Every structure is written in structure tokens, then in C-alpha cells.
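Whiteboard transcription, Tuesday session. T.W. wrote the C-alpha cells on the left side:
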């Protein structure tokens, strides 16, 4: 991870990556993980400790916190479970690192960050979504999704392997249905409008 990007996030006047999770949501996420005795559990961004402090005493717990110079991207030990609320500005890199060092993880993601491409990335790394929970925190922008992902487990949802493109031009640059264009007309290759359903 780029050191400058991390410094910029640490020094933001509006630290929108420092959005603390309500205790009841953190506890719900921990419960969803079904942590067993002796399992190693990592809080990747400790902040005020709402996850770390609530991990059960019978697990082996550890944490990362950039404010304490314990950068998640420098953490290389394999752990059984990661539980936390990732910084959304780093979510793609965060997921990449998560997928390398654990067998199970539980993250809360805003609806805008819970994308099909990210789900495909997780699936391609051998993880299945085994539990999902929707939660609305009043002061957060969007409904959030809590997901538990487990290595070598079947997923409870499926994701198309590819994006559906315009059947006329098969092009990602087609502005069909966007920027004021009609949803049923290709913007690249004209076609006979009389074929449209009435």
C-alpha cells in the first residue's frame, strides 16, 4: 500500500474512513462468526476497540491500528477469522490482503461497496458468502450489508461471471439507458426500432 495514501487518510480533516461501528452491530458481527475456542481472530482496524474488546476470551485475538503504526497491510500472519469495518477508500486493496491471510472474514460494507465485481473477486479466491445481514445505521449514508465469507464453502448467493452488455454492439462504451439515453436503444449501432416490443 502506498505510504502517501495512508498518510493522507490519517491526516484528513474529515476522516470519513474513521466511521466507528455501533457496539450492537459489532457484537452481531462477532456472533455471526461463531468463533470457536482457540481460533485466532484479527481486528484489522481497531480504532476505539469495539470489535477487539468484544472478542470472546477463549480466542487468540490480535489487532491492527494505523494510529498505532500497526498497519493491516504489513500484517502477514495467517489467522482463522478477521472481523471488522474496513476503510471504504481502501476497500479493494483491503479485500486483496484479507483474502491472503484468513480462512473466514466478516465485514460490514455499505450498499455502494457491496458490488458484483468484489463478490466475484472473493468467489474467485475460493470464499463463499455463508451469511448475510442487512442493517441500517441511522447516521450512515446507506443501508449496509454484513457478510460472512468462508474459504472452501458454498455461497448462499451467486454472481454472474460477466457483465451483460448491449446485445447490439456488445460494447461497454454504449450509453444505452444512461446519460438520458433510452434504455432500449443502442447508442453505437442503430437498429430497427420497429422490432421493439409495443
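and on the right, the sequence the group agreed on:
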Amino acid at each position: 500500500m502506498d505510504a502517501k495514501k495512508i498518510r493522507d487518510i490519517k491526516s484528513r480533516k474529515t476522516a470519513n474512513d474513521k466511521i466507528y461501528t455501533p457496539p450492537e452491530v459489532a457484537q452481531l458481527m462477532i456472533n455471526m462468526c461463531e468463533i470457536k475456542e482457540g481460533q485466532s481472530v484479527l481486528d484489522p482496524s481497531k480504532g476505539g476497540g469495539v470489535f477487539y474488546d468484544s472478542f470472546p476470551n477463549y480466542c487468540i485475538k490480535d489487532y491492527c491500528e494505523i494510529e498505532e503504526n500497526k498497519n493491516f497491510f504489513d500484517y502477514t500472519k495467517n489467522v482463522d477469522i478477521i472481523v471488522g469495518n474496513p476503510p471504504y477508500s481502501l476497500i479493494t486493496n483491503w479485500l486483496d490482503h484479507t483474502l491472503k491471510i484468513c480462512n473466514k472474514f466478516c465485514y460490514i460494507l455499505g450498499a455502494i461497496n457491496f458490488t458484483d465485481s468484489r463478490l466475484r473477486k472473493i468467489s474467485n479466491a475460493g470464499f463463499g458468502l455463508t451469511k448475510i445481514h442487512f442493517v441500517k445505521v441511522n447516521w450512515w449514508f446507506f443501508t449496509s450489508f454484513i457478510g460472512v465469507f468462508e474459504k472452501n464453502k458454498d455461497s448462499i448467493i451467486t454472481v454472474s461471471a460477466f457483465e451483460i452488455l448491449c446485445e447490439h454492439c456488445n460494447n461497454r462504451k454504449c450509453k444505452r439507458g444512461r446519460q438520458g439515453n433510452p434504455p432500449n436503444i443502442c447508442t453505437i449501432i442503430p437498429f430497427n426500432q420497429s422490432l421493439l416490443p409495443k
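Someone added at the bottom: DSSP finds four helices and six strands in the chain.
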